[in-house]
Every structure is written in structure tokens, then in C-alpha cells.
Amino acid sequence: SPESYIHGIAESQLRYIQQGIFSVTNPHPEIFLVARIEKVLQGNITHCAEPYIKNSDPVKTAQKVHRTAKQVCSRLGQYRMPFAWAARPIFKDTQGSLDLDGRFSPLYKQDSSKLSSEDILKLLSEYKKPEKTKLQIIPGQLNITVECVPVDLSNCITSSYVPLKP
């Protein structure tokens, strides 16, 4: 079938967006970028996260997780569940100095009871005090690139896929 277009942009280009531009008018060190990681629906989060957290043979574990994921994806591929989340501050100070270090916090297991944005906001208020945080960490890391962009950037769209006019 012919490809569909949204505001003149091919839908395939909008499906898996890997870049974003954000404008912040009041920079503050407590503005965070939060990444939520999902996985295919597979049952209890404790059971699903166990192979990643256990320190057993990584090769065997990877093969087992891969086999299980293939099997589950064939039946429930379109259904997702929360798996983990991570956060990082965007600014170093109130003057708007970007924190260019692209590393996120550790990946924290996301329990089903802590799904709402309000719950994550409560956890972020304790972010600066890691000794108080009793969240289970999933080994892994998430890195991004943060940079300033020129004001006259072309071919930009809003979150509603409406083209921005310079």
C-alpha cells in the first residue's frame, strides 16, 4: 500500500523517533529527562527482571531470555508492560548550563504499583539522596547526547506533528 503522510512527513519517519528538540524557558537543576523502558507483556515484573539482576552465567542467561522473548513476542508482541526507568538532570545550574554528560541514573525496576507520573515525581524528589532510595537496580546503562541547537533549525514538528515555522 502507498505510504501515508502526516502534514507532509512520511509516517514511517515518525514511527521510531530517535531525536527530539526541547525548549526550556526557565532552566533549573531539578528539570529531569526521564526514560521509561517497556518490554513485551510477560507477567510479574519481579519474575521478568530476575534474569537481568541475577549474577549467573551471562551467556546462558542471555540465550534463555532471548528464547523466552521470541516465544512471548510471537503471541503478545503488541502488548507492553513497564520494565524500568532512569532519569538525569538536564541543567547544571539555574543559568541554563546544559549537563552534557549523557549518562542516566542506574536503571530502576519499575514496579506495577509505581506506574503513575506522580509516583515517579516522588521518586525524583529523592533522586539527589541515593542513600534514601530503596529501588532495585537492573544492571545496564542508558546514554544519550545532549547539545544546544541553532535557533533556525529547519524540518521540525511539534508533538502533534504540526510543522514548526521558523
TrEMBL record:
It comes from the Eukaryota. One of its GO terms (biological process) is small GTPase-mediated signal transduction. Transmembrane segments: none annotated. One of its GO terms (molecular function) is guanyl-nucleotide exchange factor activity. This is Dedicator of cytokinesis protein 11. It comes from Macaca mulatta (Rhesus macaque). The lineage of its organism: Eukaryota, Metazoa, Chordata, Craniata, Vertebrata.
